[in-house]
């Protein structure tokens, strides 16, 4: 999914809870067909009354024809077909140059966020009316504003998912066990065979291996079995009104409306995740506008129902972000005894020839792949596997900026192609830290002068850097991998150091 890194863990966690078979898509020749219908919440008379009251309290006029955007119930939301019986609001005139469009203030939005479902619906209606003017000014056709934007519905479940935080961090091996499971590898091989013409055509055109395209498809939507059930316009409108990422969501909403304007997809078929990512390989609308491809020549860029368009669009995105034809993503490697794990970061780069001169080897003794500006990564620290990664691995991060995601795509692609799985053992005895424990670790490091930035309970580069500096100060292996033993040590508890964090050099692997 083409989203900021911190959203990925939340989205992956929520997707993993989706019932088997939900949102399934099947293939009819070159067309991917949904087997799931979509529904919309019904309007409630009480909500309409509350809307009128809220509009009056906010000092805002109701739409000219007396009908506001469709109301939502407090049930868990689901996307709706275009035939939903919801009245269209009158489209306001574009604001005059220099005019400020009507919208709730930050204080009003915050108050609405704490209110009842009826309050949310009323506030959403006020915001929607104002945003219709902005959409017109941005060049969206009046028909699209009237029939699509004006009928968008507040989706409380979107807000719940946006604000959700997983209780525990996820270890690299737990993530990859799921992302690159034997079942997903087997499914990927079957999908590669089933859609060989579309995938091989995209590969020949763009220079991205068909296995990589297939792996992204598997990672993003489990080969089309789960790419979400939210109407994209509803989801993005909800996020734009809710306000935590208002500017981003408004831009993506305008992009979604432009896609509908251009005739690539009907509004009722524009289905995706709660975060606005769409179709089989989860493009955000802005990414769709830049990279989607009409590969089957039907005049529409269809990443929901056309296998050729899905494959070509995915490859086109990677090429647009710098994918190099014929270059490997990297390989699993064995590190020499005494290797400095403080160097296992993407920011540390040198050629594969230089890494080989330091004693870095492939697991099977073959030469390292010819990579310039290559990095060594050890996602689980000194006790886990290590990987030499190059430019194309960093390009995969443009799809989702998480090392475990890019490694998942790389490994899934490799195994779909018949390659070996990861050979070195993961330190499965190390428990995952909770967000509270990560937060405590960050606070403790900051208090001792090892800056990790503002504590947020999220393990990132700043936390790893601070942790490495602490490990170096204590004579420990500076791998930057957060463990319960390191947290206990920082807290002053007299617990023994975990294997791999003793004040000795890292063992040869």
Q: How would you portray this structure in words?
A:
By secondary structure, the chain is mainly alpha-helical. Helices cover 44% and strands 5% of the residues. It is built from 20 helices and eight strands. The chain has helices at residues 5-16, 45-58, 106-113, 117-137, 142-149, 156-163, 172-179, 182-194, 196-206, 210-221, 232-242, 246-261, 285-291, 307-320, 352-357, 391-396, 403-416, 435-447, 461-473, 484-491; strands at 25-28, 31-34, 230-231, 271-272, 330-334, 361-362, 375-377, 386-389. The strands form three sheets. A four-stranded antiparallel β-sheet has the order 6-5-8-7. It has a two-stranded antiparallel ribbon with strand order 1-2. Strand 7 (375-377) and strand 8 (386-389) form a beta hairpin. Helix 7 runs parallel beside helix 17. It is globular and about 65 Å long. The two termini are 33 Å apart.
Architecture blueprint of SSEs:
Blueprint: H1 5-16, E1 25-28, E2 31-34, H2 45-58, H3 106-113, H4 117-137, H5 142-149, H6 156-163, H7 172-179, H8 182-194, H9 196-206, H10 210-221, E3 230-231, H11 232-242, H12 246-261, E4 271-272, H13 285-291, H14 307-320, E5 330-334, H15 352-357, E6 361-362, E7 375-377, E8 386-389, H16 391-396, H17 403-416, H18 435-447, H19 461-473, H20 484-491
Antiparallel strand pairs: 1-2, 3-4, 5-6, 5-8, 7-8
Helix pairs in contact: 2-4, 4-5, 4-11, 6-11, 7-17, 8-10, 8-17, 9-10, 9-14, 10-17, 11-12, 12-13, 13-14, 18-20
Quick description:
The protein has 509 residues and is mostly helical. Helices cover 44% and strands 5% of the residues. A hairpin with an 8-residue loop joins strand 7 and strand 8.
């Amino acid at each position: 999914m083409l989203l900021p890194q911190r959203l990925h863990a939340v989205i992956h966690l929520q997707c993993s809870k989706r019932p088997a078979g939900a949102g399934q898509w099947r293939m009819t020749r070159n067309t991917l067909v949904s087997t799931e219908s979509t529904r919309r919440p019904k309007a409630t008379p009480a909500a309409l009354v509350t809307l009128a009251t809220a509009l009056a309290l906010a000092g805002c006029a109701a739409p000219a024809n007396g009908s506001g955007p469709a109301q939502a119930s407090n049930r868990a939301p689901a996307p709706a077909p275009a035939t939903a019986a919801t009245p269209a609001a009158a489209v306001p005139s574009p604001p005059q140059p220099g005019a400020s469009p009507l919208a709730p203030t930050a204080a009003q939005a915050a108050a609405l966020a704490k209110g009842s479902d009826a309050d949310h619906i009323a506030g959403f209606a006020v915001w929607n009316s104002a945003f219709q003017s902005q959409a017109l000014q941005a060049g969206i056709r009046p028909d699209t504003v009237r029939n699509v934007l004006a009928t968008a519905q507040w989706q409380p479940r979107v807000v719940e998912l946006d604000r959700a935080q997983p209780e525990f961090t996820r270890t690299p091996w737990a993530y990859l066990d799921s992302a690159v499971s034997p079942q997903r590898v087997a499914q990927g091989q079957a999908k590669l065979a089933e859609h060989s013409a579309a995938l091989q055509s995209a590969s020949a055109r763009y220079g991205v291996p068909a296995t990589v395209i297939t792996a992204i498809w598997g990672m993003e939507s489990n080969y089309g079995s789960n790419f979400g059930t939210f109407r994209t316009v509803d989801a993005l409108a909800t996020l734009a009104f809710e306000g935590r990422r208002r500017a981003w969501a408004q831009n993506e909403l305008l992009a979604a409306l432009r896609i509908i304007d251009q005739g690539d997809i009907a509004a009722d078929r524009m289905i995706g995740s709660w975060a606005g990512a769409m179709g089989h390989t989860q493009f955000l609308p802005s990414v769709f506008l830049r990279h989607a491809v009409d590969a089957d020549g039907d005049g529409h860029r269809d990443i929901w129902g056309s296998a050729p368009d899905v494959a070509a669009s995915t490859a086109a995105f990677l090429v647009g972000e710098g994918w190099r034809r014929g270059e490997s993503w990297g390989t699993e490697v064995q590190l020499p005894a005494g290797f400095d794990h403080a160097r296992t970061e993407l920011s540390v780069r040198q050629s594969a020839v230089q890494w080989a001169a330091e004693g870095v080897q492939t697991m099977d003794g073959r030469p390292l792949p010819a990579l310039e500006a290559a990095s060594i990564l050890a996602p689980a620290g000194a006790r886990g596997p290590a990987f030499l990664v190059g430019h194309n691995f960093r390009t995969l991060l443009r799809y989702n900026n998480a090392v475990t995601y890019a490694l998942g795509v790389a490994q899934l692609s490799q195994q779909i192609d018949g390659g070996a799985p990861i050979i070195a053992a993961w330190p499965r005895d190390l428990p995952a830290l909770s967000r509270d424990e990560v937060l405590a670790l960050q606070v403790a490091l900051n208090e001792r002068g090892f800056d990790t930035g503002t504590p947020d309970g999220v393990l990132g580069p700043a936390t790893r850097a601070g942790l490495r500096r602490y490990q170096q100060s204590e004579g420990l292996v500076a791998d930057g991998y957060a463990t319960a033993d390191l947290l206990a040590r920082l807290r002053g508890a007299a617990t023994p150091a975990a294997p791999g964090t003793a004040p000795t050099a890292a063992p040869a692997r």
